[in-house]
Every structure is written in C-alpha cells, then in structure tokens.
C-alpha cells in the first residue's frame, strides 16, 4: 500500500509492501527511506501533531505509539496520511532535474502531469438552471412505465425542447427509440434512419435534443444508490455525445409515501464536468462484473477522492442536482407512441383524425408522435421540417400536405 507521510519538510510518499505491517515496521521504513531516526519519530493520524511545540504537546498524540499494533487495526490503509514529528535535522533529497524526454523517451506535457492526479469532488452548481417538463409528455412516459410495465423493467427516451439563454431547459416531447429493458439494464437499439426523421421534425419545431430520461425498476428502489454505475456510464455517454452543457438526465422511479403507498417521482441531474472529462479521456471501466457494487464507478487508473488515491468512486460524486418544474407545451401527446409493445400503423392515424375532426387541421397534427409516423411518407429534407414548422407556428397547413396526410390515413 502507498502511504503519504507529512512532516515539517512537506509531503512524501512511502510504499509499504507488507499489508500486515505494524507501527514498528512503519517507523523502520521511515528511518531507512526518509532518513528520520526511529528514536526521533512521533507518529499520528492527526495533523495537529505538526503544531506541537513541547514534549507535553507530543505526549498527547498516542494513537500510533503501540509498536506491535497492525496499521490496519488503526485505520491506516492505502492512501492514508500519516503525520511525523521529529527532532534534529535531516537532508531532504531534492527532486530530480526535469527531463523533457520523460521516462519513456517522449516529451512530458502538462496534460501528462495533470493525468497523474485527477481530483474528483462534488460540483455544487449545475449549468442548467431549471428543467421544466411538458405535463402531457411527462405523464405519457410515466403512465406507461407505471401502468403497463409496472416498473418491472427499465424504459428510456431522449428529451427534446429548448434551452434559454439563462440555462433553463424546457422539455416538450420525448422520443422513445427501439430498446430492450430488463430489471437492471437498458439497451437502446438505435435506428439512425428513424433518428434522422426525429431530428428533422425537431428542426422544424425549433427544438433540439436536450436530455436523457429513463425509469428505474422496483428492485432498484431497494438499493443504496441514486444512479447505478451502469446508469452513470449511459448518462455520461449521451451527455458527452451532444456537447450541450445544459444537458439533463432525468430519472423516473417509484417511492414509498408516508401512507405506505407508492408515488411516481421525477428527479433530474447533470453529470459533473469532471465526470464528462473522465469519460472523454477514457478513464471509466466500461466492463462491469456481475458481483460489482452498483454504487461504485470503477476507474482504469487511480483518481483522487478527498485525500485518497482510489479506483472506486461513489457515483453520487458525479451527480449535480437540477431543479424541476412543469409547463403546458405547444404539442399534444394523444397519438400512440413509437417503439412500444403495439406497433403504430396508419390505422392509428385514421382513428386520430376521425376523433379530432372538430379541431383546426394544424391542431389535429400537433403531436410529435403523429409527425414521426407521417415523416416516413414525406421528404426528409423539405417536407418534414416544413410541416413541423406549420405546427410550430400554428399556421394553416397547405392543401397539398392535407391531401397527402388524409391519403395516408385512408390507405389503412
């Protein structure tokens, strides 16, 4: 294990080969490697030792005074700090002269130096001031995972909407890609052709992809974590993919209320800047064993958490809480939603148009999921964004589009 030794000379590192080493063995190592005689050493895990001025002051620090006590029994382990007070003088070796060639014949850069010590701490402020969910879109998602899936398997989607200059995110529709959900895992079977249609619709609506949403299962509610390590990997991957600093990850879960019943609960987070950096630079272990603690994210190399070097990071360190609100957006969510248990057909379009005859035509098609079905019959470069723009501005739909839509509906 590696210990950090702090004395009046500064911080030095000491490698202890024996995991069962005692206080006496540690003192011997300090003597042989740091040239501080054993008889001059006073050791402690408390930093106030270095403020001691008199022998009476030193006598108060007895936590590391029993010579045969194993270090592990005293809470000293890999990465621990041990403070050393000593009398007399010693010659402290100066750092070796820096060689641009480094130890492997290549130039040492500032990035190389930074990579040796990545500090992971909590990020207090998100880049997203607030996330507001369209009530109908949020309700359609939670109703499906609650009533149909019974929170037995995971479900997810991409959130689309707008971002204000102040950093407020408004979510106006949720696209649910093809996927497979289990109790612990969520796999998106992404369809590039379908996603291009989604993006074309979003452009016409004046919106963009702003976040990820997924549900946790009932079994996960019994676990001691906010997001599992697999969920962190999925969330940071999509966050990093977009480059949008206001990107939001939303979680839908069941929580037991005061009466013993279950309430559907929404939470929103951003992945911290350090989390994004670690992902982009390839620090995360992406292969997770079945026996791995889901609360811990594993690193390929040591990072600094507090004062310890570790490869196991509590995933909560990567989460920045975002405030939640709701609003009534410009779109309805009454049309069947894509990629669920029942395929969406043109028969659904006919039924929807028949049911909404009393509304202006633009209102009848003001539903993202309906537009996604129609987009399969339209030109993606011109017709899809043009029709979506009519919806966005609530303008009269040109007769040509009306005829085409009614023709698609009647073909069922």
Can you walk me through this structure?
With 412 residues, the chain is of the alpha/beta class. The chain has three domains: 2-86, Phosphatidylinositol 3-kinase Catalytic Subunit, Chain A, domain 1 (Ubiquitin-like (UB roll)); 120-327, Cytidine Deaminase, domain 2, CATH 3.40.140.10; 346-411, no CATH class. Helix content is 29%, strand content 25%. The protein is built from twelve helices and 17 strands. An eight-stranded mixed β-sheet has the order 16-13-12-11-7-8-6-17. Strand 7 (156-163) and strand 8 (168-175) form a beta hairpin. The model is unreliable at 94-105 (pLDDT under 50).
From the alpha-carbon coordinates, what is the Rg to the nearest angstrom? 30 Å
Beta-strand segment tally: 17
Domain module count: 3
CATH architecture of the largest domain: 3-Layer(aba) Sandwich
Low-confidence stretches: 94-105
Strand arrangement in the largest pleated sheet: 16-13-12-11-7-8-6-17
Structural class: alpha/beta
Order of helices and strands: EEHEHEHEEHEEEEHEHEEHEEEEHHHHH
Distance between the termini: 70 Å
How would a textbook summarize the main sheet?
A: 8 strands, mixed
CATH class group of the largest domain:
Alpha Beta
User: What value does the average pLDDT take?
Assistant: 90
Portion in beta strands: 15-25%
Per CATH, the superfamily of the largest domain is Cytidine Deaminase, domain 2
GO molecular function: ubiquitin binding; ubiquitin protein ligase binding
Family: Belongs to the NPL4 family.
Pfam families: NPL4 (PF05021), UN_NPL4 (PF11543)
Organism: Eucalyptus grandis
């Amino acid at each position: 294990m590696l210990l950090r030794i702090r004395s009046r000379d500064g911080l030095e590192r000491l490698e202890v080969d024996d995991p069962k080493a005692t206080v006496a063995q540690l003192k011997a190592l300090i003597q042989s490697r740091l040239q501080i005689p054993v008889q001059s050493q006073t050791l402690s895990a408390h930093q106030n030792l270095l403020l001691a001025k008199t022998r009476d002051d030193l006598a108060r620090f007895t936590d590391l005074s029993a010579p045969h006590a194993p270090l592990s029994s005293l809470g000293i382990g890999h990465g621990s700090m041990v403070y050393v007070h000593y009398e007399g003088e010693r010659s402290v070796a100066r750092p070796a002269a820096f060689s641009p060639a480094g130890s492997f014949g290549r130039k040492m850069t500032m990035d190389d130096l930074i990579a040796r010590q990545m500090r992971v701490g909590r990020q207090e402020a998100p880049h997203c001031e607030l996330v507001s969910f369209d009530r109908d879109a949020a309700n359609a998602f939670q109703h499906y995972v609650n009533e149909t899936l019974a929170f037995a398997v995971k479900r997810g989607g991409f959130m689309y909407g707008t971002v204000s200059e102040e950093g407020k995110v408004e979510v106006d529709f949720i696209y649910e890609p093809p996927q497979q959900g289990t109790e612990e895992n969520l796999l998106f079977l992404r369809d590039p052709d379908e996603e291009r249609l989604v993006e074309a619709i979003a452009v016409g609506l004046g919106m963009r992809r702003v976040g990820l949403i997924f549900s946790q299962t009932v079994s996960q509610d019994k676990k001691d974590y906010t997001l599992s390590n697999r969920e962190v990997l999925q969330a940071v991957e999509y966050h990093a993919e977009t480059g949008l600093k206001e990107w939001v990850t939303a979680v839908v879960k069941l929580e037991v209320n005061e009466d013993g019943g279950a309430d559907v609960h929404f939470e929103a987070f951003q992945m911290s800047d350090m989390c994004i950096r670690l992902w982009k630079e390839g620090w995360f272990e992406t292969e997770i064993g079945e026996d791995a603690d889901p609360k811990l994210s594993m690193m390929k190399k040591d990072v600094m958490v507090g004062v310890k070097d570790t490869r196991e990071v509590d995933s909560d360190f990567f989460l920045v809480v975002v405030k939640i609100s709701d609003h009534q957006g410009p779109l309805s969510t009454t049309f069947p939603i894509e990629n669920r248990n029942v395929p969406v057909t043109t028969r659904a379009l006919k039924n929807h148009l028949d049911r909404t005859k009393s509304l202006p035509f633009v209102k009848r098609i003001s539903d993202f999921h309906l537009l996604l079905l129609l987009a399969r019959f339209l030109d993606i470069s011109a017709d899809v964004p043009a029709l979506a723009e009519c919806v966005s501005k609530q303008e009269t739909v040109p007769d040509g589009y009306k005829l085409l839509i009614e023709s698609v509906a009647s073909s069922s």
